[in-house]
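General statements about sequence and structure are easier to judge against a single worked case. For one protein, we set the task of working out the structure tokens from the amino acid sequence alone. This step matters because it turns folding into a mapping between discrete strings. The amino acid sequence and the backbone structure tokens for this protein are reproduced below.
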Amino acid sequence: MNLRNNPSALTNAAAFGVPKMFLPRWNPVYMFQDKDYFIPQNWTYYYDNTPLVKTLEKYIDYNKLAPPSKKINKEKNSNTDNNFTISSSSNIRLVITAVNVLTAEPLVFDSDRSSIVSKHLLASCGYPNYGFPWVEIEKGVYGWDGSLLSNTPVREVIASSPRNDKNIFIVENYSRKIDRLPANMTEVMDRAKDIMFSDKTLHSLKMAKVMTRQIQLIEKLYEYFEKSENRPISQNDNGGGKTNDIGNDYTFTHNEVEKIRKEYKNLVHNRGAEILSVTRILRSRIENPDVSKNADFSVKTIKEMISEGERKTLQSIKEFRENNEYNYHSHL
């Protein structure tokens, strides 16, 4: 059944829920479980999404979303981020986000730091405007859908993995651009929803480019600093070491040199990840704009979206590899 062709299906989903995904709070099954069942004025959500837990457990191997057992690797050529080793045999790394209901601060769940479980996934999709509940992540910490704060969490991904350069693939389910203005209120609301849920990383990507240029400048200045050959002994150096003479009027003490080197390493080596490319995988815009498009849980539509997503993703990866063949193989 397709919701776009059968408007009553949307009403049925809102009234009765979607099996194995969510149920409305007024469902009789909750009559003796929910102390506020007969006090709707006290409700903070309309739909219970805990049925989704069993569905997720059916399809997700949470063991693959656990932290790698091997931690700090001090070898020179180790591939690490935030003191966690990433090797070819490590589990898949998943970073998902939510927002703290009480503080409005981001909540970042990183499988390299802690195990990802169902409560993290439920928190990341607990969208309050659609009547879904917050999820208690730990004592006193409650999470809502991360899109309220950052719909495409590029910043959070970079913060979780600040050392490795990145080729980013963004899947967009909502159109960023359209060919004409909306013609009626249905299309107006449909377009407003596109904008609300569209990718909002443009500013973050611009700032990342600025940071990359700044780091490149720091690298050049540091190279000049290290190549300076005029390094007389400083009488004021408590460590009794050598100093760097940059110019004729000032010399660096040994301690100052070490501080500069430490800060350089922290900025460039530990937090110098560069965004090498951004590839956007776009969902085809539906022919007839409809405000209920993100509530279409029909089997037909879901299968169409899975098929389209797989096809476009594989095509994007193929094109990326063809355009970056040398760089791709050199990093395998």
